[in-house]
C-alpha cells in the first residue's frame, strides 16, 4: 500500500496484480475473494488503521516515478521555503517584503482558501498533492524560482513538521517570535475584530485566566491565545524533522523596527540572488506607524488596517499573569536558543530577569 500518488498513471501495478491472481488461481486451490473498491478500501483500513493518515512524499524523489511522470507536472510546483508563523508575529509584513525580491514568489490565493493555503496542518492535507501544487505559479517563473508558502498556523501544529519534512525535506523554514504575551493579546484583538462571540463577550483577562470549567467557546479561544506561545515545545517538534541549519528564527521586534537588516539576514539564509537592497526599497510610514514598501513617486504600499491594529495596551494584571504563565516556556526557549547558538531577543532577556 502506498500513498504516493500514481503520477505516471502507469498500469504496471494492476497488470502484475491481475496476473499474479490468475497464476495463484490456476495453480492452487486457494479461493481468492475481492470486494468493490470502496468496500475493499474500508476493509483494508479496518485491518491497518494506522495507515489511514497519509504521508505524502515528493514524487520526484524516486527516479522511477520521475521518469514516468507527466511532462505537465514538475517538482517546481513545491515550495523551497515555508514561513510557518506563529500567527500575529509579523508574518504578513515578512511576506510583503519577501515578494519585493525579484527571485521570490509565493503560493497563489485560491477560491477555497483565504490568505493562507494551510496544507500541512489540517484537513486540506487530505486533498492531496495535486491540490497543493495547484497553488504554485504555473509554469514557475524562471526568474522567481524561490517559491514559498506562508501559513502561520503551521508553527504550533502537531502534524505540520512531519508532513512538511516528508514532502519538502530540503525546504528552509522561517519562523518569527515576539513576546508570547503580546502575541496572545494581538490574537485576542484579531478575534474580536472578526466577530468571535467569545472574544466579544469576555475581556482579555477573563480569556487567559479562566479555568477548565469555562464554556467550550471560551476555552477554545483561550487555547488559541495561549498555546502557540509555547515556543520551545513547538520549535523542538520542527527540529525533530529539520536540521537546525534549515531553520531561521527571526526576532519579530527586529523585523518591525529594522526590517532591512532582517531581510538581509533572510536573503543570506535562503541563498537568494541577486542581493536586493531593502534599505532603499523600504520606508517608515509615520501615518501607518510601520515600515512599508516604497513605491515610485514617494508613495508607500503598507499592509491594510487588519495588520497593525489600534487597540488599548494590555492591562498590567494580564501582563503579569502571562509573564508567570509563560515563565517555564520562556526558560526552555532560552535554553534552546543557547543550544542553537542564537542570541536572545530583548523581550526574552527581560522575561528571564523577571523569573529570577
Ligand atoms: N510592517 C508592518 N506592517 C504592519 N504590521 C506589522 C509590520 N511589522 C510587524 N507587524 C505586526 O504584524 C502583526 C500581524 O501579524 P501577522 O501578519 O503575522 O498576523 S496574521 O497571523 O497573519 O493574522 C501586527 O499585529 P497587530 O499590531 O496586533 O495588528 C503588527 O504588529
UniProtKB/TrEMBL annotation:
**Where does the record say this protein resides?**
Golgi apparatus membrane
User: Which positions, given as ranges, span the membrane?
Assistant: none
Q: What is its main location?
A: Golgi
* EC number(s) given by UniProt: 2.8.2.-
Domain Sulfotransferase, residue spans? 79-327
User: Which pathway does UniProt place it in?
Assistant: Glycan metabolism; heparin biosynthesis; Glycan metabolism; heparan sulfate biosynthesis
Keywords of the record, alphabetical order, are:
Disulfide bond, Glycoprotein, Golgi apparatus, Hydrolase, Membrane, Multifunctional enzyme, Signal-anchor, Transferase, Transmembrane, Transmembrane helix
Coiled coil (residue ranges): none
- Cellular component terms (Gene Ontology): Golgi membrane
Q: List the disulfide bonds.
A: 292-302
Molecular function GO labels: deacetylase activity; heparan sulfate N-sulfotransferase activity; hydrolase activity
What InterPro entries does this protein's entry cite? NST/OST, P-loop_NTPase, Sulfotransferase_dom
Membrane topology of this protein: Single-pass type II membrane protein
Specify the domain of life of the species encoding this protein. Eukaryota
Binding-site residues, 3'-phosphoadenylyl sulfate: 186, 291, 307-311
Q: Which residues form the active site?
A: 88
Tell me which Pfam families the record gives: Sulfotransfer_1
What family does the entry list? Answer: Belongs to the sulfotransferase 1 family. NDST subfamily.
Q: What is this protein called?
A: Sulfotransferase
Amino acid at each position: 500500500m502506498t500513498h504516493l500518488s500514481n503520477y505516471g498513471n502507469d498500469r504496471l501495478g494492476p497488470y502484475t496484480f491481475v496476473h499474479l491472481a490468475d497464476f495463484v488461481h490456476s495453480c492452487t486451490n486457494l479461493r481468492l475473494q475481492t470486494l468493490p473498491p470502496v468496500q475493499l478500501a474500508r476493509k483494508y483500513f479496518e485491518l491497518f488503521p494506522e495507515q489511514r493518515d497519509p504521508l505524502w512524499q515528493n514524487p520526484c524523489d524516486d527516479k522511477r516515478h520521475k521518469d514516468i511522470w507527466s511532462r505537465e507536472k514538475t517538482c517546481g510546483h513545491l515550495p523551497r521555503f515555508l514561513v510557518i508563523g506563529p500567527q500575529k508575529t509579523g508574518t504578513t509584513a515578512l511576506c510583503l517584503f519577501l515578494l519585493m525580491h525579484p527571485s521570490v514568489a509565493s503560493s497563489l490565493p485560491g477560491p477555497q482558501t483565504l490568505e493562507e493555503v494551510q496544507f500541512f496542518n489540517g484537513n486540506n492535507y487530505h486533498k492531496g498533492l495535486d491540490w497543493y501544487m495547484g497553488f504554485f505559479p504555473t509554469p514557475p517563473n524562471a526568474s522567481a524560482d524561490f517559491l514559498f508558502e506562508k501559513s502561520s498556523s503551521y508553527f504550533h501544529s502537531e502534524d505540520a513538521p512531519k508532513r512538511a519534512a516528508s514532502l519538502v525535506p530540503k525546504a528552509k523554514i522561517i519562523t518569527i517570535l515576539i513576546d508570547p504575551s503580546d502575541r496572545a493579546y494581538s490574537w485576542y484583538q484579531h478575534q474580536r475584530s472578526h466577530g468571535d462571540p467569545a472574544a466579544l463577550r469576555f475581556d482579555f483577562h477573563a480569556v487567559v485566566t479562566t479555568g477548565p470549567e469555562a464554556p467550550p467557546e471560551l476555552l477554545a479561544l483561550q487555547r488559541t491565545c495561549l498555546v502557540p506561545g509555547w515556543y520551545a515545545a513547538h520549535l523542538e517538534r520542527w527540529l525533530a524533522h529539520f536540521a537546525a541549519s534549515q531553520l531561521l528564527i527571526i526576532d519579530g521586534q527586529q523585523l518591525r523596527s529594522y526590517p532591512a537588516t532582517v531581510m538581509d539576514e533572510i536573503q543570506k539564509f535562503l541563498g537568494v540572488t541577486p542581493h536586493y537592497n531593502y534599505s532603499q526599497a523600504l520606508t517608515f510610514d509615520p501615518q501607518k506607524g510601520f515600515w512599508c514598501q516604497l513605491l515610485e513617486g514617494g508613495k508607500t504600499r503598507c499592509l491594510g488596517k487588519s495588520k497593525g491594529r489600534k487597540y488599548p495596551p494590555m492591562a498590567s494584571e494580564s501582563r503579569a499573569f502571562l509573564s508567570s504563565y509563560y515563565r517555564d516556556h520562556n526558560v526552555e526557549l532560552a535554553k534552546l536558543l543557547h543550544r542553537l547558538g542564537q542570541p536572545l531577543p530583548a523581550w526574552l532577556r527581560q522575561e528571564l530577569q523577571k523569573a529570577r
